[in-house]
Amino acid sequence: MNEFVELFQYTFFRNALVAAVLTSVLAGVVGSYIVAKRSVFISGGITHASFGGMGLAYFLGWSPFLGAAVFAILSALGIEWSSKKAGLREDSSIAILWSLGMAIGILFVFLTPGYTPNLMGFLFGDILTVQINDLYLLGIVSILTVGITAAFYKPILSIAFDSEFAKVSGLPVNVFNYLSSVVVAIAIVLSIKVMGIILVLSLFTIPAATANLFTKSLYRMMIGGIIVSLIGSISGLLLAYFFDLPSGATIIITLTLLYAFIKLVRVFK
Question: How far is residue 176's CA from residue 152's CA, in Å, rounded to a whole number?
Fold first, then answer.
């Protein structure tokens, strides 16, 4: 118990704990929308395409997460535009941008003169390395995400479950699709620092899928997703610290076990 209390003396642990809370909010809100809209594959394409921005930013000497944000937003808008306006199938568009982004990232990391950056941090993340500036960004985006969702909840709900009916009802579906794509892209990029490119999509999927076992309501799914993500993230963070394990992987395994346990309980209830 004393060892647990002493953890809060360390700045890196306090930062990690706050990051876990903020990313849980994003995972619950954004992840529930992704799951309800069945756009997990789109989010995966955005996530992996952002690596191209990281590689290019490293080559130019810029912040890798700024590059990732630009590429993620452009990819999100590109997928939306190409599937609606250019006549390209959505899955084809996602696959092209997914592989192109990864290829660009690898190429520019290779071309970067001098020290080659450690890709493990980008691919798998490390919540224990989160800095105060990262928390400010996470906090701002979390507040904006919750605010936008609350302000436009009814149209978001309609579009998530039946976009064709929403369009017939006169809602500006395309505008909301572009807006939601940008929000998803930014939320994912900011969470890469915590979970990495490989694992971040799981953080946005598993909590919402777990909450979906209990409810079909989008609002309740968001609240449930936040709670599940908090439980899994904090438990995983503590396990990673005490057993000297990779934080991102431990959090995802914890969330997966939590989902599996609840699913089994409901099946055999």
Answer: 9
Classify 104 in phi/psi space as left (phi over 0), alpha (psi -120 to 50) or beta.
Answer: alpha
Number of neighbouring beta carbons within 10 Å of residue 186: 20
CA-CA distances (angstroms) from residue 260 to 123, 142, 208? 25, 28, 13
| pTM of model > 0.70 | yes
**What is the set of domains in the chain, with CATH numbers?**
2-112+122-261 (1.10.3470.10)
What averages of pLDDT result for each successive group of 10 residues across the chain (269 residues)? 74 91 94 88 85 89 87 88 72 84 88 68 78 92 93 89 81 86 89 84 93 93 96 92 88 95 87
